[in-house]
Amino acid sequence: MTKKSAFTPLKMKSLTGFTLIELMIVMAVIAILIGIILPMVGGFREEANINRARGDLSTLRTAMESYYIHHSNAYPPALTGLTDTTTNPKIVTRIPDDPFLPGTTYQVLYSTNNQFYALWSVGPGGTASVTAVANTGGVTQAQGAGARNPIWVANGDEQTPAESP
Questions:
Q1: How much is the mean pLDDT over the chain?
Q2: Closest by alpha carbon to 91, among 101, 82, 80?
Q3: For 30-80, what is each residue's pLDDT tens digit?
Q4: Is residue 8 part of a domain?
Q5: Is 153 within the bounds of a domain?
Q6: What is the largest CA-CA distance in the chain?
Q7: Domain count, the chain
Q8: What pTM does this model have?
Q9: What is the CATH number of the domain that holds 88?
């Protein structure tokens, strides 16, 4: 019988784990994926804001027409007139904020004869506007690079961009 020695040589333990190069490659791949995904998410947010503005403006147009019917064929002097608690019926509880300029409500402009109006959002560029509403219902938009993609509705005869595809 052979006796085993109490002292056996230590076996070399194999080291497990990731090398620095492997970790750097994984981090680079993750950074590339983030770079690809973030612009796509931003585009979805802008499209959601456009759709929200279109819906809000359509609702506000209906509220303006309801106010007109209930107030002797007159539109409110400002959008806040739609929320006036002293009028009956109360048309809306609050005017929604423009999704492209948080803290700011949509804008309204009337024709000089107060028979036509245009409601608009500042749009994705943040500077779109309506500069005039004719007494026949025609709407003039601001021109220029910052006025891209206007989102507006009006009660005139013209096709309104908020309803366009």
A1: 81
A2: 82
A3: 999 999 888 877 778 888 999 999 999 999 999 999 999 988 889 998 898
A4: no
A5: yes
A6: 119
A7: 1
A8: 0.70
A9: 3.30.700.10
